[in-house]
Structure to design on (633 residues):
């Protein structure tokens, strides 16, 4: 391997945040990744109190990782913005203003915060269903705020996986279920204009005036919209709520209210609230005998629901800054594994949390640790990898201290110890040996196939200390595998790797990835693969559908158009919204996979039944050339 050397102190400025830097090196083999070799003072890290993880110590020979493996929620999850509106998690951008929280325990207030980093990957997914029907899809490590503090989606009461986790009946803290915002139908527009213009409030607020000017051309010279209909529909009433609120409403000290001098308007406003299930009260205003005030009951949760149901225009009136949310609680009904891995997203915020589908959710911690080195938590986490080249020696010295009590040490909890650079640096054999000689139990979480190198060592170590493991194998067809992944180990070789790991007495889970729609996703193909994995002794299996990022998308598209042109239209449909396959396909695949895994003893019960029909290969579009079909993919 050819490495280009860049010596620190010889014509290059020192990198901020990197103490003990020896040199920075790059290689064409690592596609833009820079490795910063440092002499570390310590590699045995104490996990902060209150983190909720089932171990107290970690060892991370690398900081940053090209695998980028820590994520939380499905991309469609709605996130509460600082203006009271919502946006899909996948659509957030660095710099967006959203709501986080401040406070202790379950006593929280909403405060504006910014998105500092945003990223995505594939991860085993779980569905959390709440008593009101809300469904949240999250990774098992994701944490929600409960009435008894932060809890992970999954965990155990005993053993190495022990940690606070959700159970049926757990109370989640949040702001209430998000309501869909209204469409700007003609009825909505008429209702808004009636509420906002009825009392001459055209120029009261710039935001409201701008919206009114946009709506007015729809009605030409008519002013019929100024009349309150005898029997208004829901569209009109949503717009009317927004218009009256923009003209004469506000939110302060935890109360949303509207005050108006026309009884017809206040009566119509109260009637609209009743239609949408809002509890409210109507009061006289002592200082103004002709004025009535309609007050919304139910606190911050109902105020937010009002903003979503009506969608008023005036930005400052939508602010919920400081709103108390601790009283808004919903019960967990069930937590179910989906039986496959999905693309999940996470963000880092200034408050360390955010509001997802109405529930307070914790940030991912791993990427944010990269900012301690004055790198960013996004691309730098993937491309600026710090290598602690003296990690085995430093760890050996730390483990000899009289104060060390041989507590369990987890590796791979922040960054992957078997990422590709480990093939060059060979840090893990020394680290494993040091832990074993000191009598310290260890576990390894990894996606790197470099692990095969150390199986004999791990087998020896497991005789002395508890060792807890996880290969990627998506199909058994050797010819198809060679065309898709030239140069990678054959299916037979990877099955043998799994078998050797199990023969060494080590647990070995398997990622069936990527599953190719209409090529490798049939029940017959998956059943044969799972049978082989079970025969090899795999401890468990998770399934990942094909993911097409830019670059891979174009390469795969050319291959598909040349090899299976009839499939191009179907793939174009499945991946029309971006890199990830559509939700309906993922659900259908999950329904097929779960019972097969249970049949072969490779997974716990997932709650799915095999009831989805097999997808059929589409007929070729003879009227559209393959090249044109590819362009549309």
């Amino acid at each position: 391997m050819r490495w280009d050397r860049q010596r620190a102190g010889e014509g290059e400025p020192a990198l901020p945040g990197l103490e003990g830097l020896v040199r920075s090196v790059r290689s064409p083999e690592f596609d833009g990744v820079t490795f910063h070799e440092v002499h570390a003072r310590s590699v045995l890290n104490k996990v902060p109190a209150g983190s909720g993880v089932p171990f107290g110590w970690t060892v991370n020979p690398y900081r940053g990782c090209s695998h980028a493996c820590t994520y939380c929620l499905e991309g469609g999850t709605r996130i509460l913005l600082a203006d009271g509106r919502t946006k899909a998690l996948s659509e957030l951008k660095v710099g967006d203003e959203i709501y986080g929280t401040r406070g202790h325990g379950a006593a929280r207030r909403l405060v504006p915060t910014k998105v500092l980093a945003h990223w995505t990957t594939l991860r085993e997914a779980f569905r959390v269903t709440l008593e009101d029907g809300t469904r949240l899809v999250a990774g098992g490590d994701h944490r929600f705020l409960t009435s008894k503090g932060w809890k992970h989606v999954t965990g155990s009461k005993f053993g190495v996986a022990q940690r606070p986790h959700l159970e049926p009946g757990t109370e989640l803290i949040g702001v209430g279920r998000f309501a869909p915002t209204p469409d700007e139908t003609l009825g909505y527009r008429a209702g808004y204009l009636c509420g906002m213009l009825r009392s001459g409030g055209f120029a009261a607020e710039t935001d409201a005036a701008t919206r009114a000017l946009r709506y007015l051309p729809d009605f030409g010279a008519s002013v019929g919209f100024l009349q309150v209909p005898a029997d208004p529909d829901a569209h009109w009433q949503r717009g009317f709520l927004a218009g009256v609120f923009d003209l004469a409403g506000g939110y302060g000290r935890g109360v949303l209210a509207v005050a108006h001098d026309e009884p017809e308007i206040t009566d119509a406003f109260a009637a609209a609230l009743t239609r949408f299930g809002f509890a409210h009260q109507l009061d006289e205003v002592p200082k103004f005998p002709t004025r009535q005030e309609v007050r919304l009951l139910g606190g911050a949760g109902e105020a937010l629901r009002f903003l979503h149901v009506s969608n008023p225009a005036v930005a400052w009136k939508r602010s919920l800054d400081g709103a108390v949310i601790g009283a808004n609680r919903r019960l967990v009904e069930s937590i179910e594994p989906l039986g496959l891995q999905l693309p999940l997203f996470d963000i880092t915020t200034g408050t360390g949390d955010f509001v997802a589908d109405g529930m307070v959710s914790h940030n991912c911690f791993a990427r944010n640790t990269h900012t301690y080195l004055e790198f960013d938590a996004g691309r730098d986490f993937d491309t600026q990898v710090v290598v602690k080249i003296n990690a085995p020696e430093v760890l050996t010295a730390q483990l000899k201290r009289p104060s060390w009590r041989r507590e369990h040490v987890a590796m791979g909890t922040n960054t992957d110890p078997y990422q590709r650079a480990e093939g060059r640096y060979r840090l893990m054999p020394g680290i494993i040996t040091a832990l074993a000689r000191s009598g310290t139990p260890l576990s390894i979480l990894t996606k790197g196939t470099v692990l095969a190198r150390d199986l004999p060592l791990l087998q020896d170590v497991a005789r002395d200390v508890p060792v807890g493991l996880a290969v990627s194998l998506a199909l058994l067809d050797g010819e198809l595998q060679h065309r898709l992944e030239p140069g990678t180990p054959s299916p037979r070789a990877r099955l043998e790797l799994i078998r050797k790991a199990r023969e060494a007495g080590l647990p070995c889970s398997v990622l069936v990835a990527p599953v190719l729609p209409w090529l490798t996703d049939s029940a017959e193909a998956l059943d044969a693969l799972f049978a082989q994995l079970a025969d090899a002794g795999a401890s468990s299996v998770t399934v990942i559908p094909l993911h097409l990022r830019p670059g891979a998308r174009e390469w795969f598209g050319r291959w598909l158009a040349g090899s299976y042109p009839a499939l191009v239209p179907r793939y174009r449909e499945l991946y029309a919204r971006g890199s990830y396959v559509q939700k309906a396909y993922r659900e259908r695949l999950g329904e097929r996979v779960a019972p097969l895994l249970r049949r072969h003893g490779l997974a716990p019960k997932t709650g799915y039944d095999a009831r989805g029909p097999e997808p059929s290969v589409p007929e070729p579009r003879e009227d559209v050339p393959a090249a044109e079909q590819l362009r549309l993919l």
About this structure: The two ends are 37 Å apart (CA to CA). The CA atoms of residues 188 and 272 lie 13 Å apart. The first helix runs from residue 186 to 197. The mean pLDDT is 81.
